[in-house]
UniProtKB/TrEMBL annotation:
Signal sequence segment: none
PROSITE patterns: S5A_REDUCTASE
Protein's name according to its UniProt entry: Steroid 5-alpha reductase C-terminal domain-containing protein
Parts forming coiled coils: none
Keyword Transmembrane: yes
Native source organism of the sequence: Grammatophora oceanica
Matching InterPro entries: UstE-like
GO cellular component: membrane
TM spans (from-to): 138-157, 163-184, 205-223, 235-256, 290-308, 314-332
Keywords: Membrane, Transmembrane, Transmembrane helix
Length: 367
């Protein structure tokens, strides 16, 4: 009897786990559909997956599948296509079209836009975290921000050359550039690749709730875009200033990251000798890439949440901004301590540190 109950309990837990995974898959599929196809486009599948009212003979009759993009609504598609070949916003196990429409509605208006962003960020972050746990804070970070920006751009379609357009395009650039840079750096640097592999400490299923929680934080950080794109009136000088700061920060970080990567790759000396960089942006502060990152997120917050005075957006984005500020300042302190321990006493390092006294904020945060 005890064995039977144990088996029943295990079977129940497995069923619940299966339902959880299927639910996550629906949201991921819908969010990816939004990101790459836009809010009013749907995947049309020839050869239907399981659906009520469609016989198995019909499903087996059309086994070849193909996808195309269309601007037709689900109702219009159902009227155009023959009944056995009704349009398919469905995958096996759930209605992706319904989930997609919920996410679109949240982005277009109302207080649930951050939940939609959360779903989109999760659709990128969960698979990447399952592959490599450390990617939740590196490659997945950049690409999830990019996915949210692309989705907002596709659905809300800002007028070109306006403040909301500059804000969302800066976010697209920032996310794509950062995710790609971190991915390339891990591929070309054996040390970085080994460090990332060493982060795989949790079982894969245990990474899912962790990644979903991190995705919520990223959605808060990116929420000022939503405030700006949903705004019914122009953002004015505040919005323009925020957009300019966001682009300046994104470009500064890109230049500093690229400069540092080139210097590190050109140096083949593994003896622990300090090689820099010490020029260009590294004359402004010792960590100009982190300064650029904070400048980008501050510009986004200022140009989106502050300019529109959206209360929900202000609260969410302020939490996100405060969080990334704490992360960047903490990382700056740790790297400075590690560099001092490793390079302290070397002439090149000591001279650079004595000249560039600002660890993070140029001309402000000096030791």
């Amino acid at each position: 009897l005890s064995t039977s109950r144990t088996r029943e309990g295990a079977s129940r837990h497995l069923r619940l786990l299966y339902k959880l995974i299927m639910g996550i898959r629906k949201v991921l599929a819908a969010a990816l559909l939004l990101c790459f196809c836009g809010g009013t486009r749907y995947c049309v599948v020839k050869g239907f997956q399981q659906r009520r009212g469609v016989s198995s003979s019909h499903r087996r009759a059309h086994t070849s599948t193909w996808c195309r993009q269309t601007s037709k609504s689900p109702t219009e598609l159902s009227a155009i296509l023959p009944q056995p070949l009704e349009a398919a916003m469905l995958v096996r196990g759930g209605d992706v079209g319904a989930v997609t429409q919920s996410i679109v509605s949240g982005l277009q208006s109302g207080p649930f836009g951050i939940l939609s962003l959360w779903s989109i960020a999760s659709s990128v972050l969960v698979p990447l975290t399952l592959y490599r746990q450390g990617w939740s804070f590196s490659v997945g970070y950049g690409y999830s921000v990019m996915a949210m920006a692309i989705s907002m751009y596709n659905i809300l379609q800002p007028t070109p050359w306006t403040s909301p357009w500059y804000l969302v395009t800066s976010t697209m650039f920032y996310g794509f550039r950062l995710g790609s840079f971190l991915l390339v750096r891990q591929l070309v640097s054996k040390t970085k690749g080994d460090e990332m592999k060493a982060t795989d400490k949790s079982a894969r299923l245990q990474r899912i709730p962790f990644a979903v929680g991190v995705a919520l934080f990223y959605s808060m950080m990116a929420s000022p875009n939503l405030c700006a794109l949903q705004a019914s009136s122009p953002l004015g000088a505040v919005g323009a200033c925020g957009a300019a700061l966001a682009w300046a920060g994104a470009l500064l970080e890109a230049i500093a990251d690229t400069h540092k990567l080139i210097v590190k790759q050109q140096s083949k000396d593994d003896s622990g000798k300090f090689v820099g960089p010490t020029t260009w942006t590294y004359k402004l502060s010792r960590h100009p890439n982190y300064f650029g990152e904070l400048l980008f997120w501050f510009g986004l917050w200022f140009g989106g949440a502050v300019a529109t005075k959206n209360p929900i957006g202000l609260v969410a984005s302020t939490i996100g901004l405060y969080g990334i500020y704490g992360i960047m300042t903490g990382a700056t302190k740790r790297i400075d301590e590690r560099q001092t321990e490793r390079y302290g006493g070397q002439k090149k390092y000591d001279e650079w540190k004595s000249k560039v006294k600002a660890p993070l904020f140029p001309f402000v945060n000096k030791e």
